[in-house]
Amino acid sequence: MKSRIERLIRPNSIAVFGGSWAHSVIEQCQKMGYTGKLWPVHPNHTVVAGLPCYSSIDALPDAPDASFLGVNRELTIDLVAALAKRGAGGAVCFASGFSEAIEEDANAADLEQALLRAAGDMPVLGPNCYGFINCLDRALLWPDQHGAIPVGKGVAIVTQSSNIAINLTMQTRGLPIAYVFTAGNQASVTLAQLALTALEDDRVSALGLHIEGFSNIRDFENLAVRAKELGKPIVALKVGKSDAARQALKSHTSSLAGSDACANSFLKRLGIARVHSLAVLLETLKLFHVSGTLANKQLLSMSCSGGEACLMGDAALEAGLECPELSDKQSTALRNALGPRVALANPLDYHTYIWNDRQAMYNMFTAMLQSDAAIAVLVLDFPRSDRCTFDSWLVAIDAFKDAGKHWHGQLAVLSSLPENLPETIASELLSAGVVPFCGLDEAVLAISAATLSVLGSSSFAPVVLPSEPCSVDAAQIVSLNEATAKQWLASANVKTPNGILINGADDGADVSQCLPLQWPVVLKSTDSLHKTDSGGVVLDIANVEQLHQAIAGMRSQQQYFVEEQVQHAVCELLVGIVRDPVHGFLMTVAAGGIQTELLLDSANGLLPLSRIEIHQLLGQLRCFKILNGYRGRPGCNMSGLLDTLMLIQAAAIAIADDLHELEINPLVCTESDTIAVDAILRIDPLSQLNYAGSAHTG
């Protein structure tokens, strides 16, 4: 039995409402070869696009499976209500002026809510969208030109932008497209729900997403779980910069995390490959359609030009791919195939003297393919068909395909310029199981996106989300002082230095309370965020006299913070956790102390993170070598560091509804200990974290 969305996107009957838009939808259905029932509806017409027209929804022979509403927004709401009452399968709402126009029209959000009430349980695409194209069943609700054609199997593309969808259908890269969905405002049906429906179709090989924003995190998590179960890879082009990590308080964590880090971490967590251009999205989908993901990052490249070989090598390196050195077995076989005049390497320049010699090319390809690499690429730019001939190019392709018949990896033909691979050749290559890559840079990025290490693990924990959305603005968030923040950390078993708050006075401060501390000590201001920048920290205080001098030299204030100085550091780290209104909580680890802005060495992950995942984050840092011990110098207590990071994470999750930001900088790593030396804690103003903050013991 079809689901409600399936009935909409695989309709046996389509009703079309409106004037010129209705005519266009019917025309597109007829061009595609739709064989179901087409029912134009208009109160004043008897014929539309050569078809008998019905005056109303009640006049239709039956409840339509799908309806296209090419009318204004007010009438759209009325028609949706009438269709839902009739038992229709669903509707595409073309009209704009709903929630996307809220800044220009205060009534827009109310109209969208009215639309939802009118629809009830009936699925609605949009509003503010073009609809969908189903190339498998030749069914579409689409009011404009497009480049899609009927296919028996292909990829599904889901986008929030209708114009992006049109552009993608116009590709001439040979990619077979099964479905194109536009989600618009996602008032009723989300992008992830459309994507999941497409993936459930056995005729869909892979999924491409164009995402402007995540409407429902749990929907995307469900989509990723099902995609893994089905073995169908997903690639996403995520655009737009959220304000999630931009806090009123300009902390190090916020600047390091950036506005896009949460989305990047979320997609990586789900095992969804992320790309950054439409061209790479299409190239990745071609690879996914033919082979799915790749087993490793190893690449073989063959071309008849040293220039192309150099370009391939540089591009592969930039994309994080590996071009493994030739084995003795490969080198011997290649020398036999090419003779002494060719320098053997990977990427390989096999020269032109074997060009158009099918047997010689077959021998060369066969020799090269004696490898465990995941993919082998033949660089081949075709000449213009309107001015030149390319019969000998087909000889190279035939020899390449023959050589790869018994090879375990994936074959690909790559044109260095996108326009240098004719669509007819690309389609023929796809039919033969060879990936036709259009554009060298796009190809290597697509290959990188398809590697298993990029696509993530086979399972993941749902991200931690607060029980309710944040209801306060940045100006209302409470910043606890360092002593209070450290007291909270100490209560979570995170080690901090012994320290004490002392009261200030016009003539200095009473330092007698500090005598139990171990010298040297550190004097800190209590009213400065970045203390080092503002002169709010004095280090290496060895005795009471020096402490008095340090207090006298610091700006007078009501309180000072004195604590034991941590010595013999192996490395200083920054650890931050920032609340994101969409994705939950992002942990950032980075080079810390005064090196934070200097090195910009950081890695991010959404909570919760396993111990292994936290270790992997640390491994992404350039300073990881120092943590492990570098050039004879001792390393830190790595097990203790991981224990501490897990404790910090647990403490943050325990107050998830209250936490807005936590930053520990530096987290000092010694050979034996991991100690939180400075901390910022920003919480909800109604939080119950009301520590006095007078003193703490680490």
Structural overview:
By secondary structure, the protein is an alpha/beta fold. The chain has 4 domains: 4-212, 3-Layer(aba) Sandwich (Rossmann fold); 294-449, Rossmann fold (3-Layer(aba) Sandwich), CATH 3.40.50; 498-564, Dna Ligase, domain 1, CATH 3.30.1490; 571-696, ATP-grasp fold, B domain (D-amino Acid Aminotransferase, Chain A, domain 1, 2-Layer Sandwich). Helix 3 (73-86) runs parallel beside helix 4 (108-119) and helix 11 (306-318) packs parallel to helix 16. The longest helix has 17 residues, at 638-654. The N and C termini lie far apart (63 Å). 49% of the residues are buried.
Quick synopsis:
The protein is an alpha/beta fold and 698 residues long. It folds into four domains: 4-212, 3-Layer(aba) Sandwich (Rossmann fold), CATH 3.40.50.720; 294-449, 3-Layer(aba) Sandwich (Rossmann fold); 498-564, Dna Ligase, domain 1; 571-696, D-amino Acid Aminotransferase, Chain A, domain 1. The strands form six sheets. The protein has a seven-stranded mixed beta sheet, with helices on both faces. Strands 20, 26, 27, 28, 29, 30 and 31 form a seven-stranded antiparallel beta sheet that branches. Strands 21, 22, 23, 24, 25 and 32 form a six-stranded antiparallel beta sheet that branches.
